[in-house]
């Protein structure tokens, strides 16, 4: 799904935690959002899928194609599990190319199983109880399907600056065509596009350093694998609809040149 640029904004707070061991192979993190009043939220792509309970609907949320403007309902809290990049198609049981960007009610994918989970989630009195329901749901799913992990391994390898798809395919023992087929099924885009998303996410992880004057935009651009700052600017506008300077300003409130 992607994450908010800031973990704390006004009255809202976003916190991550380590998932249960039973689902750690396919779940990157569990998270809780303390929401408060209804408000829009901007989330940025990271190639992952989140299973999100917002107090009303259990949904699979994906943003691999670009920034998502997501409306948070008025609620005391929301809970989610972030599936590892490359695990979405196997866990959900359908090609990720069939999901549109945004939230897809899980009942549209898992029918009665998702409705039963929603009933249990509605009866959860705390974020911890709701998280346990989600983890049990995913644990049951992976017992049924036994994901092979190839796309997760591919995504991990493609995160490295300068990674080449032919070498990644060879390391995983598949052809380049096979790698494309697996990654498109499990992420929703091919390896090259996934690399662009992962590189952009590396930049987002460095925005705070720029905002605190611990790094420059040009230096971060080089560190995370962009050819130059102009390249970073083009990719930010394509994937976030904003310039790098605007993203830094949204974090700090200061005027930062692009």
Automatic annotation (TrEMBL):
<dbReference type="Pfam" id="PF20240">
    <property type="entry name" value="DUF6597"/>
</dbReference>
<dbReference type="InterPro" id="IPR046532">
    <property type="entry name" value="DUF6597"/>
</dbReference>
<keyword id="KW-0804">Transcription</keyword>
<dbReference type="GO" id="GO:0003700">
    <property type="term" value="F:DNA-binding transcription factor activity"/>
</dbReference>
<dbReference type="InterPro" id="IPR050204">
    <property type="entry name" value="AraC_XylS_family_regulators"/>
</dbReference>
<keyword id="KW-0238">DNA-binding</keyword>
<feature type="domain" description="HTH araC/xylS-type">
    <location>
        <begin position="148"/>
        <end position="250"/>
    </location>
</feature>
<protein>
    <submittedName>
        <fullName>Putative transcriptional regulator</fullName>
    </submittedName>
</protein>
<dbReference type="InterPro" id="IPR018060">
    <property type="entry name" value="HTH_AraC"/>
</dbReference>
<dbReference type="Pfam" id="PF12833">
    <property type="entry name" value="HTH_18"/>
</dbReference>
<dbReference type="GO" id="GO:0043565">
    <property type="term" value="F:sequence-specific DNA binding"/>
</dbReference>
<keyword id="KW-0805">Transcription regulation</keyword>
